[in-house]
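name: query_chain
kind: protein
chains: 1
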Amino acid sequence: MPYEADDRLIKRLLGGEQRAFTELVKTYQSPMRAVAYAIVGASHADEIVQDAWLAVVRNLSKFEGRASLKTWLLTITANTAKSKLRQIKREVSLDSLPGGHDFNPDQRYAEDGHWSKPPQNWEQDTPEALLSQQELRECLDKTLASLNEVQKSVLMLRERQGLELDEICNLLDISASNVRVLLHRARLKVFATLEHFEETGQC
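structure:
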């Protein structure tokens, strides 16, 4: 059975074991919040996760193990977030994406979407380097904040949560070609920020 660990955990949960639920929350709270944040933003993410956990508890006995427990939890979270998004009328059209870059993958990324030419690593053992690291983090935060919401969602799910492209397609209801375009455009902006900071030391 491919998901034996999931099956054992589900049995413990259905048996009412409190430690099992604590283990479940500890393991999956962070990725669930990341999915919620990616879809509805920070202001509603915690609410979405709370509602998703309630849905998980209500539907736990219906889990059939056809997918991994993680996929099931993230799907519930994504569906909950999408319902909220419709409710507050914050749907974003792909037609509104800013232009500036045609999709033409370059040598920085391999076919599987991973870095083939990652940004340079900086030494972090001096006060100057640590200060530079903090300044770069703030600069990257500004870049992320400037992204179209759908671009930011795809980038966060791919780079921060390590989800595969097909998982992102399913969670966000976006075609594979659109996911690649969104990810490429977002990465170009982030990479441009990194290159500029490396050259000038400024955002």
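note: The chain is about 65% helix and 0% strand.
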